[in-house]
Amino acid sequence: MANSECLLLLYFRLDRHLRDRERAEAGARALGANAALFPQDELEIVGKLAAAGQEHLFQGWPGPGTDDEGKRRFVEQLLALDASTPGGLEDYVARARRLLKDAQSGRNPLDGWTPSVPLGENLAYGSESFCDFEDLGMEEAGRCAFVLVAGGLGERLGYNGIKVALPTESTTKTSYLQLYIESILAMQERAPGNGILPFVIMTSGDTHAKTVALLESNQYFGMPKYQVKLVQQEKVPCLADAQASLALDASDPFKLQTKPHGHGDVHALLYQSGISKEWANAGVKWICFFQDTNAMAFRSIPAALGVSKMRGFHVNSLAVPRKAKEAIGALCKLTGPKGETMTLNVEYNQLDPVLRATVSPEGDVNDPKTGHSPYPGNINQIIISLPEYQKQLEASKGVVPEFVNPKYTDSSRTTFKSPTRLECMMQDYPRLLSGGQSVGFTVMEAWAAYSPVKNSPEDAAAKVQGGNPSHSATSGEIDIYNANCRVLKMLGAEFGPPQTRTFNGIDVEITAQVVLCPSYAMTYRELASKFNAAKVRIETGSSLVVKGENILVKGLELNGALKLDASNLYGAQMLTLHPGMKVKNMGCQLVESPLDTEEEVRIRGFYVQIQEIKVLDKGEHRSKLKTQTFRKSMSKKHRALT
Ligand code: UGB
């Protein structure tokens, strides 16, 4: 090293040393007699926070000898948060002040941007083009990795467990996590090549231990343990007021209150953990991000993958038609004052004012032709092309822009109802792009693509009153049955007339409880090839579960409950229902549940009472079958089955 470089290095070290000493001295001043409890490096963090206007955290501490353990615990927490919070605590407070100032002034962060409808593909489930996209998507399946963001508390749902442990429906009691794992395995099974499709779950302090326990106690639902990786997001400090004063925990004066930083952490974690790089090196092309409670998620992923491939989208957001002003993020293309553009999710409360200020004086209104807003609703399932993503992560470290959303006590916008925090969102990744990248969306009808479980029974009932989807445990389950009935109807099946039932104050139409497991079919054409719906009739209130790949339904009349389970059949073994097959039994009933029952049942308002169910799980050797096949088109792998 040259002498001048040595001198420069020495200068920087000395400068840093002096700064650290000054901070420690400031820390000692803030702590008074309590300073003696801490070594110099711990005093530095106290000094840093005191300089950032956070002296209140240390005021009112009793003298040495009282609560010393609590004081030490507090400083340890500060050090840990300083290390885990992007930019450290000082920077966090500075960012918070800026964002809180903007929030206080009521400034819309999108001022100056003009919205327009972005580039996208509208798909009608089951149409020829939908099926073509599905087939194309399945050709890409072997190059996919999957990321589930599951760090959310589920406060709105009012459920105490982790949401991924909730049953998707009460007929099979398959949990969300099980359904997702089985869907990934089903895609893997059908994908070209013999690769393993990696799966990452982002957890948080609130959900991590329970997620691990759920996986461990269920042997990872059949997925090899090494295929699943968990990354845990850390919480960030809460802010008590518009000056960004850090908030103490109401029950512990030696603890900062913290809350999740939002699902946007997923990008930084994929980068920091080295996972995205590992995937890029292994040739993964697509990352599919999805949320914790959408049982329809994998019904749309194959087709959306096909769209990404065909359109060359770097980012492809899945969306559903959205009523104007509906409380769900909207996908927009935004053009800035200098002609720069970005395509991203705009929260509904920001969309209306920005539309009024620019292209649409009447705000966000429905298009009379479609009855929906031209800006489709973001369902936060995003497919991103990994090679470009990895480059962006190298540049940005995956840190997406934050926002703050305080709930003020009154119009003076000075005090908060409860402490807030900075947050970031997964769908804000396109904000990191410099422009020029292809960012688009795929719209599918909500019945086929989206039915999350987000709202408590009380909030859900209010949503329905307001003409909005309830997004409740009740609708989450009934929508699965209804979507499956609808798909079978599209293929020609007959059903008895629907019945209206009311659960937790929500009216639902029920035809039959049909569960088509991902192992049975991953695409519409695959289903059509194995299920001769034209020779199927299912009576109202019946239950049908179809599980496992090797099942051929050539005909069925069902009045009761039937489970077809081919999970133990391989190769040439085929479970076949021949034309004329009739099943009649007592079946299963949806029974309204009392309010004091267990949580999983209470939040949906009913349970399934099994009275009688026929289970078929034996196969016939394929060569014995005089099969006529019902397939329209199939991958080679599936052709080999019959
Ligand atoms: N999540 C995390 O993993 N970590 C966190 O810190 C927070 C959440 P919510 P949200 O689908 O209708 C999103 O709370 O954020 C996970 C979109 O932002 O269910 O209010 C959590 O476990 C919005 O644009 O939703 O709204 C869950 O899996 C809109 O599209 C996921 O993140 C909306 O979803 C979403 O968390 C929607």
Describe the structure using short key phrases.
642 residues, alpha/beta, eight-stranded mixed sheet, four-stranded parallel sheet, 18 helices, 34 strands, globular, disordered C terminus, binds ligand UGB
Would you mind describing this structure in some detail?
There is one protein chain. The protein is an alpha/beta fold. About 35% of the residues lie in helices and about 25% in strands. α5 (about 130-140) packs across α10 (about 295-310). About 50% of the residues are buried. Mean pLDDT is about 90; it is low at about 625-640. It binds ligand UGB. Ligand UGB binds near residues 202, 204, 291 and 379.
Model regions low in confidence, pLDDT < 50 over at least 5 residues? 625-642
* Fraction in beta strands: 15-25%
Quick check: average pLDDT?
92
Structural class: alpha/beta
End-to-end gap? 72 Å
Number of strands: 34
Layout of helices and strands:
Elements: H1 3-31, H2 40-51, H3 68-84, H4 88-105, E1 114-116, E2 120-123, H5 128-140, E3 144-149, H6 176-190, E4 199-204, H7 208-217, E5 228-233, E6 235-237, E7 239-241, E8 248-249, E9 252-256, E10 258-260, H8 265-272, H9 275-281, E11 286-290, H10 297-311, E12 315-320, E13 330-335, E14 341-346, H11 348-357, E15 377-385, H12 386-396, E16 402-404, E17 415-420, E18 422-424, E19 439-444, H13 446-449, H14 457-465, H15 473-490, E20 494-495, E21 499-503, E22 506-510, E23 513-516, H16 524-530, E24 536-538, E25 543-547, E26 551-553, E27 556-559, E28 561-565, E29 573-577, E30 582-584, E31 588-592, H17 599-602, E32 606-610, E33 614-616, E34 620-621, H18 636-639
Parallel strand pairs: 2-19, 3-4, 3-11, 4-5, 12-19, 20-24, 23-25, 24-27, 25-28, 26-29, 27-30, 28-33
Antiparallel strand pairs: 1-13, 6-10, 7-17, 8-9, 11-15, 12-15, 13-14, 16-18, 21-22, 29-34, 31-32
The structure holds ligand UGB.
